[in-house]
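ARCHIVE CARD
CATEGORY: sequence design from structure
SOURCE FIELD: tokenized fold
FIELD CONTENT:
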């Protein structure tokens, strides 16, 4: 079958598994498990959870030397990224073949998917401000509501622990890249705190090329990026088993891109850029009311502001800036009740309100009424049962939205221990994606027209997985099928012309089948993480592959410490894809493979030096037609952690 024809990847994975069995060292590296919360909204170890979950810790982030969240997540099984260029450019995350709008991203408990376009702006988040990331693959709308068809990415900013510590980091690299970061955090008695800031700037490279007809004649100059990030958190444990905390994060900056304006019959280039400001605030209080009843209450606020502007236009031309701002207010009340030794019941209320402000005029054409806000209220319930050799999880959620009405989603998962080391898991879940304000009321635009009759997308996912945790390492393999109905797309108002304005419509159906495999082990003192994803992402209406979804992806990361040195590298390979659902030969995006290398040396108790090389072979490739992926680059860093 063509779907499984990726022989080099299969061979590489087989070699890793075989080598693991023969060469793995002592099992002590796997006696401590990572705790996750996102899969059930309650604390579990990775081995206990019934959902496919990946965890990236602060230690992982520092070891990787990643400059962006997409760089951090690209080796997670099932995760792909498509970008309109390099650092800071428009980036979409595809989990298990679902679109960026179909994956929910949460930062410190707050959902950051945009109310206007539905996408999370991961490209602006700074890894230096992140404590951990949990990635749940598969539908979890039964706990999180809208937009969790592909999964949930839960990001936590840094929290202080242990003795207060100051770290100052400076970096410089190719493309005139410069960074300066500072972090101070720790614990004093029952109070934890952390303050961090980071400034990054790069001249970048030219994002666009002439392979796309719409790019011919564009200004082929370097597209720069600058970003300032700040985060702060504080929490305190009181003597009556109560904890309260507050977190704040903010990013703002500027990213350049290419465009033209028409002068007569010619298209002339000019300098265009986007200025962004994103703020997230979350406050919580949690308490054990009894030995069996735990409660938590969160309130939050998110503000996203984006302004597009242009300079150096041809004489006589003026640029009309476009700006939008969205505000989201939210609250969550969750209760976890142990009603028997082996039963945990979770009950919750989830509410958020979206408001839009800006130059756009979001109006319902049927009534003429301005539509610039909507609320979503939900109730969810989940029960987790533990038996002698098996586990059962059942969840149900009811969402009531001011604009598109009510949606009910559910999930059931069952895990059975085949042995002390291996578990078989089966699950079924439903999910949905909410239509955005752009889908419903796209404002003041001659190219796209909103449609207030658009319905939410809906999906059904079935999955079967095997998970193992042995002395030689941890492994997992999962097969899934996700059927998505009423997919929202933009269709020509007059299909016979094949041009002109497009209207949002529920026109597509998709069936996404896939296999994911991963293994973590130690081979001759090398920490190995290998992942493989095989996808069959089809548009059921046209019987073609969904746009920009590679059908094969493979990664192999290896890291080792030798005295004061640490060295590592990542090989990443991705199969071909198509730039559109039409699957024309002219729209084919070639497969590619890249190699990244990293090393670090602890110079003494206070200083650490680092070096990272990305795309070592300078491979030319694109994940979106007409846009160049980053070329070979390097960055060196020095971190100072003074002793007090």
């Amino acid at each position: 079958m063509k779907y499984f024809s990726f022989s080099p990847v299969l061979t590489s994975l087989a070699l890793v598994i075989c080598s693991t069995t023969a060469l793995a060292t002592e099992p002590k590296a796997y006696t401590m498990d990572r705790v996750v919360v996102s899969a059930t909204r309650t604390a579990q170890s990775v081995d206990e959870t019934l959902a496919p979950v990946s965890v990236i810790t602060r230690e992982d982030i520092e070891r990787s030397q990643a400059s962006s969240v997409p760089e951090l997540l690209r080796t997670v099984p099932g995760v792909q990224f498509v970008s309109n260029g390099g650092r800071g450019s428009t980036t979409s995350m595809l989990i298990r073949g679902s679109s960026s709008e179909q994956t929910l991203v949460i930062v410190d408990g707050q959902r950051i998917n945009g109310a206007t376009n539905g996408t999370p702006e991961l490209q602006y988040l700074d890894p230096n401000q992140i404590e951990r990331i949990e990635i749940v693959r598969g539908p979890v709308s039964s706990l999180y509501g809208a937009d969790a068809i592909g999964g949930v990415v839960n990001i936590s900013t840094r929290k202080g622990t242990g003795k207060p510590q100051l770290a100052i980091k400076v970096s410089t690299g190719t493309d005139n890249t410069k960074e300066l970061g500072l972090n101070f955090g720790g614990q004093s008695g029952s109070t934890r705190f952390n303050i961090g800031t980071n400034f990054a700037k790069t001249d970048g490279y030219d994002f666009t090329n002439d392979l796309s007809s719409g790019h011919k004649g564009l200004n082929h100059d370097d597209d720069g990026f600058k970003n300032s990030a700040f985060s702060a958190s504080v929490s305190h444990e009181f003597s009556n088993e109560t904890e309260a905390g507050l977190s704040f994060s903010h990013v703002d900056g500027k990213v350049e891109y290419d465009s033209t304006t028409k002068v007569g019959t010619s298209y002339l280039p000019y300098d265009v850029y986007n200025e962004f400001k994103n703020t997230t605030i979350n406050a919580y209080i949690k308490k054990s009311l009894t030995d069996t009843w735990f409660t938590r209450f969160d309130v939050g606020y998110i503000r996203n502001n984006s302004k597009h502007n242009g300079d150096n236009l041809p004489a006589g031309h003026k640029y009309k800036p476009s700006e939008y701002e969205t505000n989201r207010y939210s609250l969550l009340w969750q209760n976890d009740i142990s009603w028997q030794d082996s039963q945990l019941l979770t009950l919750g209320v989830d509410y958020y309100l979206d408001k839009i402000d800006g130059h756009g005029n979001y109006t319902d054409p049927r009534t003429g009424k301005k539509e610039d806000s909507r609320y979503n209220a939900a109730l969810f319930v989940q029960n987790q049962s533990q038996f002698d050799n098996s586990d059962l999880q059942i969840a149900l959620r009811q969402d009531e939205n001011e604009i598109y009405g009510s949606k009910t989603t559910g999930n059931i998962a069952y895990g059975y221990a085949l042995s002390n080391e291996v578990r078989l898991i089966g699950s079924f879940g439903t999910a949905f994606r909410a239509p955005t304000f752009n889908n419903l009321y796209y404002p003041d635009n001659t190219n796209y027209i909103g449609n207030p009759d658009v319905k939410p997308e809906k999906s059904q996912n079935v999955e079967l997985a095997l998970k193992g945790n042995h002395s030689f390492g941890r492994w997992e393999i999962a097969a899934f099928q996700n059927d998505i109905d009423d997919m929202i797309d933009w269709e020509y108002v007059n299909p016979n012309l094949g041009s002109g304005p497009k209207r949002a419509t529920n026109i597509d159906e998709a069936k996404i089948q896939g296999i994911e495999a991963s293994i973590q082990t130690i081979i001759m003192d090398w920490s190995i993480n290998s992942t493989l994803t095989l996808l069959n992402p089809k548009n059921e209406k046209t019987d073609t592959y969904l746009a920009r979804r590679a059908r094969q992806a493979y990664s192999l990361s290896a890291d080792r410490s030798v005295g004061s040195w640490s060295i590592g590298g990542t090989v990443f390979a991705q199969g071909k894809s198509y730039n559109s659902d039409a699957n024309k030969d002219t729209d084919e995006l070639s497969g590619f493979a890249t190699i990244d290398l990293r090393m670090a040396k602890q110079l003494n108790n206070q200083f650490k030096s680092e070096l990272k090389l990305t795309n070592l072979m300078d491979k030319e490739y694109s994940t979106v037609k007409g846009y160049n992926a980053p070329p070979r680059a390097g960055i060196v860093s020095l971190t100072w952690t003074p002793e007090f």
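CARD ANNOTATION: The chain has one domain: 2-640. Helices lie at 7-23, 58-64, 69-73, 141-144, 437-441.
SHELF: design records, drawer C
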